[in-house]
Every structure is written in C-alpha cells, then in structure tokens.
Amino acid sequence: MASILPARWTRVRRAVVALGALALLYGIAAAIGADRLPRRIWMSPHYVEDVELLPTYPSLAYELGFLVESGILAGAVAVSAGRVLAGVVLGSIIGILLGLATGRATRLEYLTDPWVTFFKFTPALALLPLFVLWFGYDEVSKVLLIAANVGVVVLLGTHQAVRNVPGVYLEAAASLGASPGLALRKIVLPAAFPQVFASIRVAMGLGWVTIVVAELINPRMPSLGYLLTLAGAYPRVSTMVVGIGTIGAVVLLFDMLALLLHARVTRWMGRSA
Amino acid sequence: MTPAGTRGARLEAVDVGYVYPGRTATQALDGLTLDVGDNEFLAVLGPVGCGKTTLLRIFAGFLRPASGTVRCDGAAIDGPGSQRGYVLQEDAIFPWMTVRENVEFGLMARGIDAAGRRAVSAELLDLIGLSAFEDAHPKELSAGMSKMVEVARVLATDPSILLLDEPFGALDAQTRARLQEALGRLWEQRRKTVLFVTHDAEEAIHLADRIVVLSSRPGRIKAEFRVDLPRPRSLETRFSAAFSDLKRRIWEVLGLGGVSAREQVPRIAGS
Questions:
Q1: pLDDT band for position A68 (cuts 50, 70, 90)
Q2: CB–CB of A187 and B94 under 8 A?
Q3: Phi, psi for A156 (deg, rounded to 5)
Q4: How many CB atoms neighbour CB B209 within 10 A?
Q5: B161 neighbors B195 (Cβ within 8 angstroms)
Q6: Is B106 within 8 Å of A171 when comparing Cβ atoms?
Q7: Is B5 on the interface with A (CB under 8 A)?
Q8: pLDDT tens string B56-82
Q9: How many helices (H) and strands (E) does chain A have?
Q10: Range with top average pLDDT, A82-91, A138-147, B232-241
Q11: ipTM attached to this prediction
C-alpha cells in the first residue's frame, strides 16, 4: 500500500516536467515566429488579414481571459462533458451487457462477431449523416453517436475480460454449488472488472475524440466542438489552442478521476497500476 | 446439512477409462476400479502424468469418463456438486474477496443468511488459526495460509466427501509438513471420506488410511497399501520404523529405490 503513493507522485512530477517542456518549446517557437510568420492567409475564396499562426503567450492569455470571463469556456466544458458522459455511460452499459453475453455464450459470439468486426472501425464522421436522419438534430444524435463509437470498444474489452477469467475460479465456484447467476455476480464480474475498467478508460478518451464531430450536428454554443469549428472558420488560432488545451486538460482530469476510482475498487489486487 | 462426521459417503469408480482427445490422443486412465467410503482417508499416489488429477476431476464432476461408471452414494455423478468438496491443485482462492467471504461463499450459494454464514466461518477460521485474518484479502496471506483457506471454504458447506488435488504441491517442505499436520488434525475432528491425490509418498503415509499407487500412463492401480499407523499422527510418526518401512515399500513400487538400485551397484562394481 505504502509503495503506491510515492510512485504516483513520481509520475505526476514527470508529467509536469514533460508538459512544462512542451509549454516552454511552444513559447520559444511563438516568440521567434511572432514577427516572421505571415499574417495574411489565403482561405480558399479570399484573403484573411491579421492571422496569428502561432499565438504568443500574451495573446493566448488574453483569449483565455476572454473565454473564461464571458463564461463561454465554462459553459462549453459543462455541455460537452455532459454529452461525453451520457454517451460513455450509455455505450458502456450496452457494451458491458453484450460483452458479458458474448463472453459467456460462445454461440452468441459466433452470431455477433461478424457485426462487431464490421462496425469496429467505422469512423464517427461516416455515421454522422445517418444518425442525423434517423435520430434528428438534437441531443439524442450526439449522445448516440458517442455511445455507438464507445460501445464497440467496451464490448470488445468486456468480452476479452470475461474470456480471461481463470477457469479455476469458475470450477471452484461451481463445485461450491454456485448457480450461474451467482457465479456471474460474484466471480465473473469482479474478476473481469479491471480489464473492463481499462476499456472504459479508453472509451472515455474516445468519447472526447467523438464529441468534436458529434457537435457538428446542429452546431450551437455553448459546446467545445462548435467553439473549435467556429475558431476554424474565422480563423482564430488562439481560440483553437485554448479549446484544444481545454479538451486535453478535461480528458486528463477525467482519466485521473477514473484511476483514483480504479485504485479504490481494486484494492484486492496485488499491485495497483 | 448432515452433522459433521456422522456418516461417510461412498465414492465408486468401476472400470473407468479416460482419453484426452487431440492429435495424439492420450489414454489417461484405463480400467480403473476404486471404492472409498466410511470416512476413510484414501491417498492416490503416482508420478506426474499418471492420471491422478483426471480421476479426481471425474469424481468432482468436471470430466465424464470415456468408459465405466462413477457413483457417489450410489447415484451416478453428472456434474459438480457441493456434497463433494473439491480443492483444486491451482490457487483458486478468490482474490477479490476477503478471507471470510471466501470461506462463506459456498454457504452464500446455499442461501444461508449472513449470521448463519458468520457463525460457520468464525468456527472454521478459528480451527485453521486464521481468525486474525478474516478481513484480509488473499494477497496478504502466504501461499500456505491461502491453501488452508481453500480447504476451509470447502469444509464450510460440510460436504460428505473431500476431493483434494495435491493441495500442498506448490509449497516448500516445512510449510507442507505444517499443513499436513493441520489437515490431519482437521480430519480427525471432522471425519469425512477423503480422496487425496499426491505424488509425495511421505505425505500420503502421514495422512491416509489406505494408499493406492497408480501406474504411469495409462493410469491403472499398481499396488495398494494399508496404513496402520496410530492416530493422531505426529512428528514422531514420521520418524517411526513402521513409517519408513512403508515408505521404502512404496518407493519400490514407484520404481525409485530398493531393487533396481541394488541391481545396479554390483554391476558397476564388477565391471
């Protein structure tokens, strides 16, 4: 137990150093580029004046200040995070249920495997027009698009996790008189949990990847996806950098929360990751 | 539930054969007939790959014999059941449960309430000397302690038969000896019919009433020994003349000592 905490802080320290180095390099590049990069950019039908290709820290600070003060950023984060969470929760529930079923019943796996393989790598953008037609322009389409992308990942993770449950546990449970239901609840679920959870973590990241695409549907403020789309249309690079940085920070935060939860729930394991 | 040790259930194998399918099909057991009951402690002894585990898994209900029949108290065995407590060779303690939850698992499967489960687990943990660890997770236990928890877990539902598959096989010599003592004491307090599989002759002698030696692939009964050493058996038993005499006879059957060694020595000396 005691050995985990220092290890975690070492990792945090390394992450801070790595991100600090990135920030420093960017600062140097922006400072050098400020006077040298072109400010007049050809955007297909016309020229756009006064574009800052590598915004300096002062202009980033100004932009961040504006987005925070106006409440745009907070609103966008809240709305987008809500959609990601809803999509990930829905997709994970469906993925876990299907994964448990296919992991336990080989015959069902034969049936679903071709479907999963077929849709595994279908990009969200390809599904977008279809989802808009089927589910409309509102929240439903956005959440379902994330759920569809995320669900496949969790399904595969859960399926594999269930298959990896050591047979000795199932045999021991069966010879102790456990019914299939009890074995599922008390043996399969806890034994598979760490791997299922790992797939949900991946799904959470994928949810944030999908949200930017999902928010192209009926684009409206506040949302991080539309903020980025809008920034691209102007174009305003400082807004893009702040938006991308915000998404990165929120993903990091979500992942850290997930890891804390993971450590808490899997205290029984020999060594926490 | 039957009160501990009132009756000994009977296990029978009649002319049992088992073949592991595959590109090179392996005849693991062939024409094996065995009978154990009346709270007898029977040890099945044999080299690695002689089909001991196969036999036990057939009795446990996880394998169906290719030929012959297996019965438990006269009824054909057609699957696992908690009247035959089975301790696997591998570590099968549930690592996500506490020691107490492990011991209570079989009782939970029977739908016994928390208070009832608690009473049984407290008694068993006391019996194996692990009361202090009831809320610990298995990662905090030594390998020997884990194995005893597995034995206690099986005993919790008070099965009429115990099937033990080299439970102490992966442990160091001292821990083995200690757990053998513990198991011996446990069995003397709660008599049951036991089928104990091992490759260790000393372990078999120390614990069993009767020892069956299997031949290597296909497993057939090669010899049978009665162990008439007095109980309770202790450390002293291990160093008694009767003990080492029996061990020598078993080793001869296993082809490890005696005759073949004596044959070889003069030949080398004479050449």
A1: very high
A2: yes
A3: -65, -40
A4: 17
A5: yes
A6: no
A7: no
A8: 999 988 988 888 888 888 888 888 888
A9: 11, 2
A10: A82-91
A11: 0.84
- For tokens 């050809």, the residue is A42
Which residues of chain B lie closer than 8 angstroms to A267, CB-CB?
A: 137
Q: Which two tokens stand for residue A113?
A: 């495997």
Per residue in B107-145, pLDDT (tens digit) is 999 998 999 899 999 988 888 888 889 999 999 988 888
Cα A173 to chain centroid distance, Å, stands at 36
Residue-wise pLDDT for B26-35, tens only, equals: 778 888 888 8
Distance CA B80, CA B236 (A): 38
- Least Cα distance to A60 among A233, A225, A220, A244 occurs for A244
Q: Quick one: chain B helix, strand, coil %, rounded to 5? A: 40, 25, 40
Query: Is A55-265 CATH 3.90.79.10?
Result: no
- Scanning B123-152 for CB atoms below 8 A from A yields 137-139, 150
Q: Are B149 and B141 in contact (CB under 8 A)?
A: yes
CA distance B140 to B99: 10
pLDDT interval class at B256 (50, 70, 90): low
Q: Per the structure block, which two tokens stand in for A150?
A: 């995320």
Residue A177 distance to chain B (closest CA, Å): 5
pTM of the model: 0.81
Asked whether the predicted pLDDT for residue A89 surpasses 90, the reply is yes
Q: Domain segments of chain A: what residues?
A: 55-265
Contacts of B153 in chain A (CB under 8 A): 172, 176
Contact predicate A142/A214, CB 8 Å:
yes
Residue B208 contacts residue B43 (beta carbons within 8 Å): yes
Question: What residues of B are in contact with residue A268 (Cβ under 8 Å)?
Answer: 95-97, 137-139
Q: Sign (positive/negative) of CA torsion B206, B207, B213, B217?
A: negative
Q: Which residues of A touch B92 (CB under 8 A)?
A: 168-169, 171-172
